[in-house]
Structures are given as structure tokens and as C-alpha cells.
Design brief:
The protein is α/β, with parallel strands linked by helices and 395 residues long. The strands form 3 sheets. Strands 1, 2, 8, 9, 10, 11, 17 and 18 form an 8-stranded mixed beta sheet that branches. The chain has an 8-stranded mixed beta sheet with strand order 5-6-4-13-14-15-12-16. Strand 17 and strand 18 form a beta hairpin. The radius of gyration is 21 Å and the shape is globular.
Length: 395
């Protein structure tokens, strides 16, 4: 480990840290950057444990713009992220996202749809019959939903492959990858000075980026910054059904927030966030009874063929939930120079890594942003000006 000062230290080398580092080094190849990750196996990484979905269907303009930018990045991602001629394979399937809405959510969903379309998003309103034409398993006889929005360019990809691509590119451009645990962000006279590691080493830098995901609250607390963020354990289930669609179906989001991702043949992934999900950074267990009691009955109601299925697997990961307004916290913390936050994505962070990577790099370097995301500045927390998304869309 080099004891010379760094320009930028990242606390956390998940997809956000690696994407920002890549964008920094593309703009200034002379920067000395440390990506510090406490577990390079990424066993409990929120990036790796995510479902890898990307969608244009948001209700905040900047969130939509980030998704549209991601679609542009993904067009040439393999070529742009190649290292030594090796191109990453991220498996982006643009099978579409089909979001059902009930009468209660209709007005909000349609307002979001109008904004998405005005910004160039390819999203359409469907009647229940039109939704069933795309998703034949749907029950439209019982009036469970009044319509749906379909983002035809939305889809899923392999999150670990995206992370590995950014990590390898950052290292190829000159970033130093360090496996260590940060115990404190050091600061003096309202300016960060570096980090302290669990083994006692101190690494110095004038910029420290909190890219620690669900562990970001405790990292911020070490330098006196209180973030309205908690790590919430989210369970995902894999089921096998007797249905065998002849093509990959769109991601399906029910009005309650339960979602279903078709993996091929009769295999589906499903999950739902519940108010009593555990707050933890150590519990990665999953319980089949929560699926059987809370999710299965709803799936069978909307998809009668799911009345009979087999639960084959499951896992749990951590959501960094922003309890203030559910949206990202991006930028320098007021009152502590050099301490940059990339936190609180509340479950939709993975898909925003491309735009956030570019934006945070621009912020750190003092460059004018290509896409202004200052609406998500941490200053809004201190000024009590929340930025709320559509309550219906929580994945």
C-alpha cells in the first residue's frame, strides 16, 4: 500500500464508487485514487445482490433523465469499457417493464407518464386488455387494475458484470484497489483529510467519497454527519411455475409494489418491500414464510397460473433507504469540505450509476455538469426541502 497522499479516496468499491472513479480518471488521468472495499468477494454487496433492473418510469425529471442517459451509455458499454481488448458481457435484456396501476394511483402514474414522454421516454399507457396481450398470464376479469404503463426499452442486466466492468476500467486507468475496512473519515477545520483503517493505517486525501451503500450512515457518523438513511434488509424469492412462455416476459410491477421478473421457461424472481423489513447490516437470511403469507396470495390473484408453484431459492440484500424522501443524496456535504456523498438510493441506485458516476466526477473536479442533479444535493436535508417520487414505484 502506497503511503503517499491520494487525491480522492472512496469508502466502498461497489458500482457507484467504481463508476465515479472511472469517470474521474477519464477526465484527469493523473489523479491518484484509492478504491477501498472491505470485502472484494462482494458477498454482501448491494450491487451484486440487486435485481439489475433499469427503467425510465420515474416521476422526478432528473430521475428520468438519468435513466435516459443510462440507455445511451448501455448502447456502447461493451466497447467503451473494454480493457486489453476484453469486452464486458452484461446481458442487458430490454424485455420492457410493465407497471400496473389501480384507480388510486392512476392520476399520479399518468402525470409521470406525460413527463416521461415529454423527455423522450418510450413509455405508453395500456388498457388492461392491451396489458394482457403483452403479459398473457394476467387476470383482467376481476378489475384488479385499471391500466398499465409499458416502458419498452426498460429491462434487466447482470449487476455484477456491470460492477466488474467499472472496477476493471478504473484500475486499468490507474485507480488503486485496496481491500480494507475504513473505521473513520478524518477531518480538521471543516475539511476532510483522509481515512483511518481498521488495521490502524491512515490514508490522506483532500476528497473522501462515501460510497459505502447501506453502511454509509455509520461512515458519515464518524465525521459528525448524520444522514437520514437506514440499511433495510430486502428479500428476493425465486419460484418455478408450470407456465412456459415462449419468450421472456416484461418485468411486472403490481399496484402494491410487488414485482415479478421472468428469467426464462417457468422461472421467476419476485419481491416486495414491507414496512417491517429488518434494519440491519448483518442479517442476510431469508424466510420462505414471508413469501407464502404475503406475496404468493397476491401473485395468484393477479396471475391465476401462479396458484401452483414451487419456491426454489431466495436471498437477501441491503437497501440504503433514504428516510427523508427516498431519493439519492448526491454531492458535497455543507460544512465539511471534500466530503462527497453518493448515498440513499432506496433501491434504485444500480440503474443510476452511469449518470451519477459522471455527475459526481464533475462535482469533485469543479466542472459544469452535463446533467444537473443538484436537486439531490444534501443541502436539501438541512433546508427541509424533500424531493418525493411516485409512491407507487418503489423498486
Amino acid at each position: 500500500m502506497n503511503n503517499q497522499p491520494y487525491d480522492v479516496i472512496f469508502v466502498g468499491a461497489g458500482v457507484m464508487g467504481c463508476a465515479i472513479a472511472t469517470n474521474l480518471l477519464r477526465r484527469d488521468s493523473q489523479l491518484k485514487i484509492a478504491l477501498i472495499e472491505k470485502d472484494l468477494s462482494y458477498e454482501f454487496s448491494s450491487t451484486v445482490l440487486s435485481d439489475g433492473n433499469s427503467r425510465v418510469q420515474f416521476n422526478v425529471k432528473e430521475n428520468i433523465q438519468m435513466s435516459l442517459y443510462a440507455l445511451e451509455v448501455l448502447k456502447t458499454f461493451a466497447e467503451d469499457m473494454a480493457v486489453d481488448g476484453e469486452k464486458p458481457e452484461i446481458g442487458f435484456r430490454q424485455q420492457g417493464n410493465l407497471f400496473l396501476t389501480d384507480e388510486v394511483g392512476r392520476a399520479e402514474v399518468q402525470a409521470g407518464l406525460a413527463l416521461q414522454q415529454s423527455l423522450g421516454g418510450e413509455v405508453a399507457w395500456l388498457t388492461p386488455a392491451e396489458a394482457k396481450a403483452i403479459y398473457p398470464l394476467l387476470n383482467i376479469e376481476d378489475g384488479l387494475f385499471v391500466g398499465a404503463t409499458f416502458g419498452r426499452k426498460d429491462g434487466t442486466m447482470l449487476p455484477q458484470a456491470v460492477l466488474e466492468a467499472y472496477k476493471k476500467k478504473a484500475v486499468a486507468l490507474g485507480a488503486e484497489l485496496i481491500e480494507a475496512e475504513v473505521t473513520a473519515v478524518r477531518h480538521q477545520n471543516n475539511q476532510v483529510t483522509g481515512v483511518q483503517l481498521k488495521n490502524g493505517d491512515v490514508l490522506s486525501a483532500g476528497v473522501v467519497v462515501n460510497s459505502a451503500g447501506g453502511w454509509g450512515t455509520q461512515i458519515a457518523r464518524t465525521c459528525g454527519v448524520e444522514l437520514p438513511m437506514k440499511p433495510v434488509m430486502r428479500q428476493v424469492y425465486v419460484v418455478e411455475t408450470a407456465v412456459r412462455p415462449d419468450k421472456i416476459l416484461p418485468l411486472l410491477l403490481l399496484p402494491s409494489g410487488t414485482y415479478l421478473i421472468h428469467e426464462g421457461h417457468g422461472i421467476f424472481m419476485t419481491a416486495h418491500s414491507h414496512p417491517d423489513d429488518p434494519v440491519t447490516t448483518t442479517d442476510f437470511s431469508w424466510q420462505r414464510h414471508k413469501f407464502e403469507e404475503r406475496i404468493w396470495p397476491e401473485l395468484a390473484e393477479f396471475l391465476p397460473d401462479f396458484d401452483s408453484l414451487r419456491l426454489t431459492d431466495g436471498w437477501a440484500g441491503i437497501y440504503a433507504v433514504n428516510t427523508f424522501d427516498g431519493n439519492a443524496i448526491l454531492g458535497e456535504w455543507p460544512g465539511l469540505r471534500g466530503f462527497f456523498l453518493v448515498n440513499g438510493f432506496s433501491g434504485h441506485g444500480f440503474q443510476q450509476c452511469h449518470a451519477v458516476g459522471r455527475y459526481l466526477a464533475e462535482c469533485i473536479l469543479g466542472l459544469p455538469p452535463a446533467l444537473d442533479l443538484s436537486i439531490f444535493s444534501p443541502r436539501r436535508i438541512l433546508e427541509n426541502t424533500p424531493v418525493f417520487e411516485n409512491k407507487q414505484k418503489i423498486i
